[in-house]
TrEMBL record:
InterPro entries: DUF1707_SHOCT-like. The chain crosses the membrane at residues 117-135. Residues 16-68 form the DUF1707 domain. This is DUF1707 domain-containing protein. The keyword Electron transport does not apply. Residues 1-21 are annotated as: Disordered. The keyword Transmembrane helix applies. The lineage of its organism: Bacteria, Bacillati, Actinomycetota, Actinomycetes, Kitasatosporales. Keywords: Membrane, Transmembrane, Transmembrane helix. Pfam families: DUF1707. PANTHER family: DUF1707 DOMAIN-CONTAINING PROTEIN, MEMBRANE PROTEIN-RELATED.
Amino acid sequence: MDDRREPPAVPSAPAVRVSDRERDRTLGVLAAALAEGRLDAHEHGMRAGRALEARTAGELAALTDDLPAPAPSRAERDRKDLREWLAEWRYWLGGAVIMSGIWGADCARRGELTSYWPVTPLAVWAAVLIAFAVWPRDGEDGDRPQGLSDK
């Protein structure tokens, strides 16, 4: 007789308890689905009640699995755009450090200060970043500068 036993099945993810913020996020998804007509008022009420009583992430996920994620709000898109724009400035700063280091090493090799050539590429790069920030947007989604269109 074989004494080996199958180990008990281990769930792929433990049941993680949810916070009020996660319940509120789920209620927001359900409200958006109601507003879009994806849920009727009765089903929305049932799911909202279960969301308020949910204790684990799996229970909340089951309530929204058949619904698309809501589109990000204008404020969320603006925050994302700002983060990306600030990241571009960090890249600019890194480029400035690298180009200044190359210029400094070249000056040290020659034994004299030469004209600061990095000013030209850095100025052009900064102008592009500033223009991107102030360029007017066309349409509600704000993804395309005015005057550019699909042809």
